[in-house]
């Protein structure tokens, strides 16, 4: 029989061992922050080659982490994109949330909810834009995903990022944390111009300095529109820097996984709601000194549905079977690793009737369009912009170039194929070129397989236009009763399909 002294020694040893194990577990669970911009294209950051937009803080994170050069969204539309990120599922697999302002099916878990249940302190500050369907008879609501929620707005600052510093500073210090920091910048309205603080953000951007893409008109009104947009990108960047400085002050920056991304492309013609790179490609920066083993630019293909399983993996949480993404952890460890061959995207109703699907593989983007008779002119707020109206004026004078004319093109091709490396703006459709016939056939087959395996479908009747396509003004006719009659995949119960399709 052990003596009392030996028993006490053994007990103390066990306690210290448990304490060490607990400490090691906590050390292995990094903090996580997602910085999500609203309506910002991938090439509007300095680290992605934009010489005019000032983003020094994002650029610094990219220099010390990974800049993903082939990162893609699943939807170039606000709430469908965000809902896809938070569930790790394609939009049509989220139920009604495939369309703008619609809820995620109740039974689908959100990854912050899993983090919260596992001991993380979770907070959302800024734009929310996500909800679940209301519980039916005998159903319970989803568990709360966030310990703290605020809109990120204060008097004189409607950016959505006004409270990021206080949330970071006032967090519980005895828990790992997850922050969903979602800015309203750079959504149209350009409130940054009216709320500008030169002492914090520097001088406003000048119209003469902006970069005008070939599908926009190069005129004073469009240039000022872009300059105001750049101002919002810079305010978003500034607030990221404030949080990073606070993390550094607290001594936790090295053990915090930071992602910077956007929900869709800039709110200009031929960007937001487009399946082309100008709408669907996102700047994606990952920074985590203790977890990322190399720094630089990655050419590996990733999808934003991969963020949820990645975050759950680094937090030591089980990935639910509902998530269709794949963990990006191998990419953190090895620059030459890969996690997927294909990235899929979709465009459903956002102010206007639409059904488009896209697949990216290697250097190629293939798009199919099941409403080719309709133009892809962009969302209503973009249509109301000076930039769009300047294009209308050029059209009326017969002065549009081919890239600008694509904004109004109707009917559109049913199939589009592009080499995104040699044709970064996707202006040269290769689908009828004989030398690209094999690529077209192969990617059409892959896209059809993905649609079939994930339960996608093309309803006979889709949600109709609710805004005028020329002016962006609400239609006089009330179409609310017909909105969402049948969302894509609903007839096949796609929200209960967990198969990811080809990866």
UniProtKB/TrEMBL annotation:
Span list, region Disordered: 454-503
Secretion signal, residue range per the UniProt entry: 1-26
Keyword Hydrolase listed: yes
PROSITE patterns per UniProt: SULFATASE_1 (PS00523)
EC number: 3.1.6.1
Keywords: Calcium, Hydrolase, Metal-binding, Signal
Boundaries of every Sulfatase N-terminal domain copy: 30-316
Top-level enzyme category: hydrolase
PANTHER family in the record: ARYLSULFATASE FAMILY MEMBER, ENDO-4-O-SULFATASE
Protein name: Arylsulfatase
Lineage: Bacteria, Pseudomonadati, Planctomycetota, Planctomycetia, Pirellulales
């Amino acid at each position: 029989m052990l003596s009392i002294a030996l028993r006490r020694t053994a007990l103390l040893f066990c306690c210290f061992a448990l304490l060490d194990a607990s400490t090691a577990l906590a050390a292995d669970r990094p903090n996580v922050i997602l910085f999500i911009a609203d309506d910002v294209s991938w090439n509007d950051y300095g680290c992605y080659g934009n010489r005019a937009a000032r983003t020094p803080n994002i650029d610094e994170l990219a220099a010390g982490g990974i800049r993903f050069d082939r990162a893609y969204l699943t939807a170039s539309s606000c709430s469908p994109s965000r809902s896809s990120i938070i569930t790790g599922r394609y939009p049509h697999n989220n139920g009604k949330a495939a369309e703008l302002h619609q809820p995620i099916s109740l039974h689908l878990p959100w990854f912050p909810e899993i983090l919260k249940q596992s001991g993380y302190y979770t907070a959302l500050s800024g734009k929310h834009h996500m909800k679940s369907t209301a519980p039916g008879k005998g159903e319970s609501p989803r568990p709360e995903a966030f310990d703290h929620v605020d809109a990120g707005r204060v008097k004189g600052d409607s950016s959505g990022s006004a409270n990021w510093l206080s949330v970071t500073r006032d967090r519980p210090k005895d828990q790992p944390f997850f922050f969903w920091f979602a800015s309203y910048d750079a959504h149209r309205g350009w409130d940054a111009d009216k709320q500008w603080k030169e002492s914090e953000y520097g001088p406003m951007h000048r119209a003469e300095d902006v970069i005008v893409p070939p599908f926009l008109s190069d005129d004073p009104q469009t240039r000022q529109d872009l300059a105001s947009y750049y101002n919002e990108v810079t305010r978003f960047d500034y607030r990221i820097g404030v949080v990073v400085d606070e993390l550094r002050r607290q001594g936790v920056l090295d053990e915090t996984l930071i992602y910077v991304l956007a929900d869709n492309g800039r709110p200009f013609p031929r960007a937001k709601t487009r399946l082309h790179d100008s709408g669907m490609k996102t700047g994606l920066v990952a920074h985590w000194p203790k977890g990322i083993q190399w720094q630089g630019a990655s050419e590996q293909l990733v999808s934003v549905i991969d963020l949820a399983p990645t975050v759950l993996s680094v937090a030591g949480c089980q990935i639910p079977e509902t998530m269709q993404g794949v963990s990006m952890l191998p990419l953190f460890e090895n620059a030459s690793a890969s996690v997927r061959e294909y990235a899929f995207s979709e465009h459903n109703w956002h102010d206007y009737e639409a059904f488009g699907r896209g697949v990216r593989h290697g250097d190629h983007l293939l798009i199919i369009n099941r409403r080719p008779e309709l133009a892809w002119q962009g969302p209503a707020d973009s249509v109301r912009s000076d930039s769009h109206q300047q294009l209308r004026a050029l059209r009326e004078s017969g002065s549009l170039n081919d890239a600008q004319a694509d904004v109004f093109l109707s009917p559109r091709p049913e199939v589009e194929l592009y080499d995104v490396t040699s044709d970064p703006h996707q202006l040269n459709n290769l689908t009828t070129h004989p030398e690209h016939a094999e690529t077209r056939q192969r990617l059409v087959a892959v896209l059809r397989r993905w649609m079939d395996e994930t339960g996608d479908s093309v309803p006979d009747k889709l949600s109709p236009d609710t805004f005028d396509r020329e002016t962006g003004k609400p239609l006089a006719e009330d179409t609310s009763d017909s909105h969402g009659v049948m969302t894509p995949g609903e007839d096949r119960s796609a929200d209960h399909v967990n198969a990811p399709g080809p990866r």
